[in-house]
Design goal:
The protein contains 17 helices and 21 strands. It has 439 residues and is an alpha/beta fold. It has a 9-stranded mixed β-sheet with strand order 9-10-8-11-12-13-14-15-16, with helices on both faces. Helix 5 crosses helix 12. The two termini are 36 Å apart. The relative contact order is 0.09.
Length: 439
């Protein structure tokens, strides 16, 4: 969105130093500054103030700063504030008020499937609406604000992924975004150690539902009892989706093609259709059903949504089909992992008709009972005749290997093999994928 530096300074209680310039969007990464963007130097392990000069050289229109003593030497347009991270949130909260009243904001959360569901919502709606969404997983107190600020004021639908690492965090994001529609994908074992177990996860995720207005819509997964129970926390009308008989958007006859992509039928309040996704994973059928439920709430024709979803793609390193240099099918799902998403990925690999199946697995971080979770995954892999290559952990019951050792073993796999690569971010398994896929 475009705004004047003076208007922003007044709105957030900052002090303008330098020319009153036009600002167009925002970023906290000096390496990705676009012309006229507001640069927000976050003070964390590294102090973003050290990169203001780089941001100005790249064309930043203005910058926030909590260090007024550096402004004279840097030049440009500065807005002096007490705390830049808080000022970014205040900027986004004010920016949210600049959109027309007709702009619909959709919040998406859940233990698994947030990003994929967000991507599929964008695909389903884009044929009928001007849609903007967060890039990658910009779903926290920094990513969500810059997504709002980078959206044009002509945006008709703004889709915002919302993550959490503790109670109250989604509520905080909702106070910035003020969503009209909320989508809950699943409640699973992700960040359980931070919120007191899986019931704490459900409580935290449901904060999105409690933030919705009566004239909005709540979109709930009918196949997850903890999610469906959230209907009691909603003052907005509820649309459910899934394979359950009572789901408002119901998917049936779900099966996988030779590449592990879902084929299924869908029945909605407005009609029925058949759909074949181009993204591996049975669970992607559920994510697509969530997207269709959102479209139903907004009156988008089912035929348009289905046509768009057939060719939809999702964000990088989330069940992406790739081929190794030696011809093996590789499912790149290494962006993150928890027990729920790991089960879905292993089940997908098990159903692919390959002679040899290999899962390169890393650690699953921030879960409450890691030992039992690893054992369950190992048992599931064994039942699916899947060989596990465990990187950096012996929790799966297999000897731990290094990333270099895993790379060498995958390089030996040929076109008779299907490979899954999955682990939490700390495992850095993208290094395995990048080493075996042609550049």
């Amino acid at each position: 969105m475009k705004l004047r530096a003076s208007d922003l300074a007044n709105a957030i209680g900052g002090r303008l130093v330098g020319p009153d310039t036009e600002i167009d969007g925002a970023t906290f990464d000096s390496r990705q500054v676009l012309r006229h963007q507001l640069f927000v130097p976050i003070v964390a392990e590294r102090d973003g103030h050290d990169f203001i000069g780089d941001a100005l050289k790249a064309g930043a229109g203005a910058y926030l700063t909590s260090r007024p003593e550096i402004v004279e030497g840097l030049g440009g347009t500065a807005i002096v504030v007490d705390n830049t991270a808080k000022a970014l949130i205040d900027t986004a909260r004010w920016g949210r008020t600049q959109f027309p009243a007709s702009t619909v904001v959709i919040g998406v959360t859940g233990s698994v499937g947030k990003t994929s569901t967000k991507d599929l919502i964008v695909a389903a709606l884009s044929s009928a609406k001007r849609v903007v969404a967060n890039v990658r997983s910009f779903n926290n107190e920094q990513g969500l604000p810059v997504t709002i600020l980078n959206a044009p004021l002509t945006t008709e639908v703004l889709v915002l992924e919302m993550g959490m690492r503790g109670l109250g965090q989604i509520d905080d994001l909702c106070r910035i975004a003020r969503p009209h529609i909320g989508v809950i994908t699943r409640v699973g074992e992700a960040h359980t150690e931070l919120v007191g177990g899986i019931e704490g996860v459900a409580q935290a995720k449901g904060e999105l539902i409690e933030a919705l207005p009566p004239q909005g819509f709540t979109i709930l997964n009918a196949d997850d009892e903890r999610v469906l129970a959230m209907r009691s926390r909603s003052v907005a009308p509820v649309l459910s989706y899934g394979e359950s008989v009572g789901a408002d958007v119901r998917i049936t006859d779900v099966r996988l093609d030779a590449h592990g992509c879902a084929l299924f039928d869908v029945v909605t309040p407005s009609g029925s259709a058949s759909l074949n996704l181009s993204i591996p994973g049975r669970h992607m059928a559920h994510n697509a059903a969530a997207a269709i439920a959102v479209g139903e709430a907004l009156g988008v024709p089912l035929s348009q949504m289905v046509e768009s979803l057939r060719s939809a793609t999702i964000s990088d390193r989330r069940m992406q089909m790739k081929t190794t240099r030696n011809g093996a099918l590789l499912l790149d799902d290494c962006y993150n992992a928890n027990p729920t998403s790991m089960v879905a990925a292993i089940e997908t690999l098990a159903q692919i008709p390959a002679t040899h199946k290999v899962a390169v697995l890393g650690v699953m971080a921030e879960i409450e009972n890691p030992e039992s979770a690893y054992v369950k995954i190992a048992q599931l892999a064994k039942a699916g005749n899947i060989e596990i290559i465990a990187v950096g952990t012996d929790g799966y019951g297999s000897p731990a290997v290094s990333i270099d050792q895993a790379i060498e073993r995958i390089r030996q796999c040929d076109d008779s093999t299907a490979v899954l690569v999955k682990g939490s971010r700390v495992a850095e398994l993208e290094r395995v994928v990048d080493a075996v896929i042609p550049g």
